Amino acid sequence: MKSNKNVRIKDVAEKAEVSTATVSHVINGNKYVSEKIKNKVNKVLKELNYHPNSAARSLRSTKTNTIGFIIPINSEDTAKSFFMSIAEGIEEKLKSRGYNLILSNSKEDPEQELNLIKMFNTQVDGLILAPTNENFKGINETIDHNFQIVMIDRLPVGYKGDYVLVDNFQGTYEGINELIKSGFKKIGFLSSGLGITTSNDKFEVNEELSNNRIYVNPNNERFQAYKVALSDNKISFNPDYVLFGESSFQSGYDLAKQLISKEIDAIFIANNIMTMGSIKFIQEQKLKIPDDIGIIGYDNSDWTEIISPPLSAIKQPAFEIGVQAAELILNKIQKPTSDFQHIKLKTENLKRSSY
């Protein structure tokens, strides 16, 4: 009996009531699938007379000794240096193992991200991704399941695989505690948007990485840590001291203006470009740091050391994120059915002269 060329892997998945990824795993035998599910899928494959195109399988399974890395950087975003440091860490580890790196930018565009994944499907042995899509479903349906994937920095809803994250909660919690120890009590929190919708003035964020029911965005953890640190120090949470906006210089400037009008005495700013905008407003108002207002920024950059006074910052281990992510992807290529690895790296609180 000839193969039915009109049947797609998606048709098999729907009839077997499994994901396209599971069907791919059964066909290629590259990841563990229970005997029950395997038998179910094989039965449907036979019923639909589906046989994968051997030429296409050969093309996709050709070893390239290349890893893809997709970053999410907007034109104005100062996170370039953060992700470039990660790329350096990835490349150093890959080169030591005879692999090359291809870097591309989704520009925080979910559709562009999926297009890049499609491009990488036949070009790489594995993919390291700082995701823009908030749900893994679209990524899962796009990705070629003959190669491995590792997430960094963020996690989309439904993703259960390997990842390397930064412990944003720890860094922020320590930073807020330091501000409080230095005598600041009216501490504002300024950030770009959370990875989920907040409910009016409640700002509820339920971080459960084990189940990953929400999109895990670094800002979620930072905001949660801010609230917990205040509570642990018997300081009431005031929603008026919390502002969210775009991740841009102008947004940082405008939101700092709003916060300072509320007579706060310190600001924790959850990303670098917004910190720059905030500092610009503070300088224009001729406010003295830390006498008039204390500041901690997230993340560390060269400019934070050379302004006056030098700015205290939470430093992320960008290079180490890259090294760990590369190690995970290489291990997964060697042992596709190995257990998933979940890594969270610590930040460093760089105390300078801004609080």
UniProtKB/TrEMBL annotation:
This is LacI family transcriptional regulator. Keywords: DNA-binding, Transcription, Transcription regulation. The keyword Lipoprotein does not apply. The keyword Transcription regulation applies. InterPro entries: HTH_LacI (IPR000843), LacI/GalR-like_sensor (IPR046335), Lambda_DNA-bd_dom_sf (IPR010982), Peripla_BP_I (IPR028082). It comes from the Bacteria. Gene3D superfamilies: 3.40.50.2300, lambda repressor-like DNA-binding domains. Residues 7-61 form the HTH lacI-type domain. CDD domains: HTH_LacI (cd01392), PBP1_LacI_sugar_binding-like (cd06267). GO terms for molecular function: DNA-binding transcription factor activity; transcription cis-regulatory region binding.
